[in-house]
Amino acid sequence: MTNIELKRVVITGLGAITPIGNTLAEYWDGLLGGRNGISTITRFDPSRHACRIAGEVTGFNPHDYMDRKEAKRMDRFAQFGVAASKQAIADAKFVINELNAEQVGVVIGTGVGGIKVMEDQQEVYLNRGPDRCSPFMIPMMIANMAAGLTAIHTGAKGPNTCTVSACASGAHGVGDAFRLIQRGYAQAMICGGTEAAVTPLSVAGFASAKALSTRNDDPEHACRPFDRDRDGFVMGEGAGILILEELEHALSRGARIYAEMVGYGMTCDAYHITSPVPGGEGAVRAMQLALKDGGLQPEDVSYINAHGTSTPVNDPTETTAIKKVLGDHAYKIAVSSTKSMTGHLLGGSGGIESVASVLAVAHDQIPPTINLENPDPDCDLDYVPNQSRQQTVDVALSNSFGFGGHNVTLVFKKYKPL
């Protein structure tokens, strides 16, 4: 195989729709302030459900990003994806036109896609018959539509796809976009993840799997990664989008550079449909591959944005994996779970957590893990409990692990000209 010169890839734009803010500034301020985004579900009546809490996006108006007719023909997950993408493009001051459109691509991941549309149309089918189902049901439901609609709304004609790997989807989206630019298939990519699965059927399914917290009377403290009293994850919704650019392209237009992306590792446990392999072997390899990809040593790592789901199994397994990868250095770095504030965005989590990791590198500030009051003895690292921290962040890892055994680690680094 012919060797090719890999391009350097930098991050020049960010966008976020989240339970703690619907702009990049609101999201970052919320993270640093330890803002709780979890409350009793309002999008449907949850009274019959075992879990009645979630991280909902509030105050979002799709008409700020698209006209009413377009919004009506999109599921909420696609609305989030398009909105965050437009934010990121504006943040990057990136102009897509007929001269560069074919060199700008889109990879936006999602875990379940348009599940609300599917639920609603099933009701129509059962109660009113098949001929009353919407002709827009399929294009509103299918998972690739956030990526497709983002291209339609922005004019990006380059590589376009959708990653669907459960809770690793958004991270796979960022990683795959990184590879496309590295290898010269695009000059810029719109990438990340989006999800809007706070729906009756989705919440019921996760609750039946005993995956969700049932701390319904205390939603503010329900998501508590690495805490001894955690009892499951809390669902969230939203989108996180990054603009990745080939370095020379970014420099040629005078772009502001947040950070450089240098590593991407992905593996599979090949073990169980929902549980990680004991000891975290798959997560270990993902982190090791990502560091090797970036030409980095364990002691180079400053911060890890953990998968940190607040489930009994994930948190100690991830802690063990981090210690296996970093050795003694694991006790010298900061690790935090921003899910403690936003809830778990499933396929969107890798997107908003990549945004958080990039901002940590750019601003030398580390978001906290809130609700960490009684540390689990098996989780003995520095999880930045309850308050953000000013600290130099030269290298940040972002971990995302998904049902089916998918493991992804992304590596972001301070940009330094050669």
Automatic annotation (TrEMBL):
It catalyses: a fatty acyl-[ACP] + malonyl-[ACP] + H(+) = a 3-oxoacyl-[ACP] + holo-[ACP] + CO2; (9Z)-hexadecenoyl-[ACP] + malonyl-[ACP] + H(+) = 3-oxo-(11Z)-octadecenoyl-[ACP] + holo-[ACP] + CO2. One of its GO terms (cellular component) is cytosol. GO terms for molecular function: 3-oxoacyl-[acyl-carrier-protein] synthase activity. It holds the Pfam family ketoacyl-synt. Keywords: Acyltransferase, Fatty acid biosynthesis, Fatty acid metabolism, Lipid biosynthesis, Lipid metabolism, Transferase. Residues 6-414 form the Ketosynthase family 3 (KS3) domain. Pathway: Lipid metabolism; fatty acid biosynthesis. The active site is at C167. SMART domains: PKS_KS. Its EC number is 2.3.1.179. Belongs to the thiolase-like superfamily. Beta-ketoacyl-ACP synthases family. PANTHER family: 3-OXOACYL-[ACYL-CARRIER-PROTEIN] SYNTHASE, MITOCHONDRIAL (PTHR11712:SF336), POLYKETIDE SYNTHASE-RELATED (PTHR11712). This is 3-oxoacyl-[acyl-carrier-protein] synthase 2.
